[in-house]
Amino acid sequence: MIEFRNVSKIYPGNQVAAENINIKIEDGQFVCFIGTSGSGKTTCMRMINRMNEPTSGEILIDGKNIMEYDPVALRREIGYVIQQIGLMPHMTIYENIVMVPRLLKWNEDKLRPLAENLIEKVDLPISYLDKYPSELSGGQQQRIGVIRALAADQNIILMDEPFGALDPITRDSLQQLVKKLQRELGKTFIFVTHDMNEALTLADKIVIMDKGNIIQQDTPENILKYPATDYVKELLGEEKLNEAKTSYNTVETIMIKNPISISEDKTAYEAISLMREKRVDTLFITDDDNYLKGVVGIFDLGKVGRRNPTMKEIMTKSFAISNDTKIIEAIHQFYVLKFKNLPVVNEKNQLVGLVTRASIVDTIYTNLWSEDDESDDEPLVDEDDNFQELIHEAQGDNND
Ligand code: ADP
Ligand code: MG
Fold first, then answer.
1. Alpha carbon nearest to ligand 1 atom 7, residue
2. Which segments does the entry list as coiled coil (predicted)?
């Protein structure tokens, strides 16, 4: 754990860069510092590895004051990635990746397997290790930059606006990559940004700074729901605030209650007539206590022939989401995992509802593209073909 206790930093000339900062950062947490330029983000981050030393207060790592650590040893334990430092052009990809472990005098035998392991994590072929940066695309080079930051296996990684100068699409894919690797490797990340979307995407905890002070520190969800001041609202922007109003509600608020279901011992013919009567293409199979057992779709029933099997014989297992799932997480399921509809179950796995693509898309329409938006701004998710596809499909569904 990293802990700031009443930390202040005053530069010569009475320049207050950080004032009475108190933060607790748990192991494996992803913390983003955000604020306007000059608000003290970099100063706070650099105090963690003693590149800047506090004027007063103390910083503890695992309960020990960092002033008691040897500064060189401390910096070895903490990875640091400065703004937009590219790869070394005259070194191979391999040499770039193992640069810090080499500086730390790791055994050479360990380095090749390390580099191979890391390059596989970013889906690039091992043969690329022997190429030079100029032989890789810009996006590939950036991915190498990310794994280089992780190569020395330090438990704490500091990143100061690493993606500040990148185009939005590259930035987006690197954010996903960083988040994925952070989760996989369980490292603590401290990440400085001035982009709220970036902070909302990445952070477990966001620390909002203004003029050397912490204005608010909380989860992205709570910051969106309860922005502490106008400054925070401004950083979030109106669009995000609108979005937050509903997308952090649970799926219970938009689900169809008591979806059409049928019991395990009913036959295919009975199922077909129930579908016809209710005009649905999917039936959920439940037992007497309403536990979700499986699902049968209209196409499965089309194939049964004369034998007229029971639901138990032909149903497949159904993926389900729990009733406390946030809408924003459900959006992810629909969009990434391409579900057409999802049953909702309670904590006992009893069927309580159904969320359809159409209801999700409705939520997106009303919140991301607010109705009174008369500007010709591009929609937030326009870059994404999958998403467009999803929406067209849902519109099609509605027009039936
Ligand atoms: P941020 O990273 O949020 O842009 P910084 O931490 O770099 O902010 O800076 C916070 C404040 O401290 C700013 O007003 C900046 O001018 C001042 N500052 C930063 N570094 C120094 C320094 N070495 N000497 C004097 N003032 C500094
Ligand atoms: Mg800075």
1. 42
2. none
